[in-house]
Fold this sequence. Notes:
This protein is α+β, with helices and mostly antiparallel strands.
Amino acid sequence: MCGIIGIIAKEAVADGLLEGLRRLEYRGYDSAGIATLVDGHIECRRAEGKLVNLARRLAYEPTHGVIGIGHTRWATHGLPTETNAHPIATDRVAVVHNGIIENFQALRQELTGLGYTFRTDTDTEAVAILATHFLAQGLSPPDAVAKTFARLDGAFALVFLFAGEHDLLIGARRGSPLAIGYGDGEMYLGSDALALAPLTRRITYLEEGDWAVVSSRAVRIFDAANHAVARPISEAAASGALIGKGNHRRFMQQEIFEQPAVIGDTLQALINPATRPVHLPELPFALGSLKRMTMVACGTAYHACVVAKYWLERIACLAVEVDIASEFRYRAPAMPCGVRRCLSRNRARRPTPWRHCAMPRRRASRSSPSSTNRPRGRHLLPTLAGPEIGVASTKAFTTQLAVLACFTVALARARSAVDHAREAELVGALT
C-alpha cells in the first residue's frame, strides 16, 4: 500500500511532499523518503519507520529544491531499512515506485553483467539503473523512460526525477493508479487524489499503460503504444474538508458512524423508492441467462464476495466462484462461453466485467470507461461510501454488501428464483 507524491513548484517542495505523504499514511508503510533537485543534483532524505522520523531528518538536514518526489514504502523486497527506502536513486535519476517489478531479477542480472552495481535489495533499483543505462546511451529522459517502461513486467506506478532537469517529472502506470494534478504554474503527481487534495482539485487520472511527461505548465500523455493521447481533466471529489475527522477522535470511528448514511445512499441508487424493485443499469444481455459467475476481488472486497456467493447460490440459484485477484491472474481458468464475472482478468478474453467500487473515481471504476464511451458489455455498480481512511474497512465493506445484495435480488428475479412476495420481502429487509 505504498504512496507516491511528486511536485513541481515555484518554491521549496520538501514541506509539501511531507504533507502529501501524511495524507497517505492510512495506506500503511514502514519507511519513507523524499528526493529533490538542488543545483541540478539529486538529494535524498530517507528514514525508517514513521513520517515523524523523516520530518526530524529534514529538520536537521533540510533540502530546498523546487521539484521533488516522495514515497511511503511498505517493504516487499528487502527489509524496511533506510537503504531500501524510496526514492531509489542513481547519479542520473531517482525513482518512487508502487507495486511489484516481476522480472527484476532478470534485469538485475543483465545490468550487473553490464557493469552496474546494485546497493539495495529492492526491485525498484532495477528500474532506476535501467533508466540510467538508457540515459547513458544518450537518450532523452522521455525516450529513456519509454524504453524502460517497455522492459518491465508486473503491476506498478512509477515517478522519475532526473538530475539537471528542474522542470520535469515523468510518471507511468500499469495496474497501479497514478494521477496528475494541475496548478497555476505548478504540477503534481500522486498515487491517490487525497495526496493532492490540498494542492489542487483539477485531476487527470492516467489510464492503464499510460505514461506522462510533466512540466510546470504542460502535460504530455502517451499510451502503452507510445502514441500521444488526451485524457480528461476532472474535479477531484476528495477535498481537504472531506477527509477530516469531524467530531470524532479517529477516522475509523467517524467511518463507523457514517455507515447508515452511505448505505442509504447506495440503496437509494439501486432501489426505486416508488415501485420498490431493484433496478440495475441497462444490460446488453438477459440477466436471467447467466449460467455461472466468477467474482474476483482483493482484501475486504474478497470477503464481501464470499458473503455474496452464499446469497447468490441460495437465493438466485446461480453457481458462483470467488477468486483472490492477485492469484486469479496466474491461475488462468477456463472461460467457457456464457461465463460472466464481476471483474475481468483479461478483457481480450471477452467476459462481461461488472465492477463495483467505494468511490466512482477509485481505480476499478476508472478502468471501466464512462457511460458515454463504454464498450458493449462493461458496466459499473458504484457504492457510495466516499473515501475510507481507516485501515480496517468499515463503510466500504458494508456498502459493497449492499450492492451485492441488490444484485442478488435482481438476478433472482430475472432467473425466476423468487416470486413477487419473496422479492418484496428481500427488498424490505434491505430498506
